[in-house]
Task: inverse folding
């Protein structure tokens, strides 16, 4: 699994990749949160569950990322580990991390995932998800 991102004017484009769509979505979440902090220093102390229904895979990506951001902001937590599975149009995910504290490196805050340049597709044997996040 390779994580990557690209700059886009005042916003940042993220790219998630994986052998499955689930790995791809987890990768995209990891990329998005790595903009905010060095995730290698974040411990998976608290785990939160997410369930949503979305038949459109592109809209599911944006929904997943925005649900993660909303919970992160509401609980003052930075996530570092992600897992999601797809069961037809239902998505069941988990994210683990820990409370923000003054010793953590703070990067750029991400406000939300957008529909701009949104793409989820299979390229050869790998899934790739892209979108622009508002920073």
Result:
């Amino acid at each position: 699994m390779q994580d990557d991102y690209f700059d886009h004017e005042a916003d940042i484009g993220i790219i998630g990749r994986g052998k499955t769509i689930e790995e791809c979505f987890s990768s995209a979440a990891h990329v998005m949160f790595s903009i905010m902090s060095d995730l290698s220093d974040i411990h998976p102390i608290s785990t939160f569950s997410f369930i949503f229904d979305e038949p459109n895979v592109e809209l599911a990506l944006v929904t997943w990322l925005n649900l993660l951001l909303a919970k992160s902001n509401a609980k003052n937590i930075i996530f570092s580990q992600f897992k999601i599975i797809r069961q037809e149009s239902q998505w069941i995910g988990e994210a683990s991390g820990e409370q923000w504290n003054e010793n953590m490196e703070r990067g750029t805050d991400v406000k939300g995932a957008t529909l701009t340049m949104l793409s989820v597709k299979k390229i050869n044997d790998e899934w790739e998800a892209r979108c622009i996040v508002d920073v």
In short: The chain has one domain: 4-134. The chain has a mean pLDDT of 94.
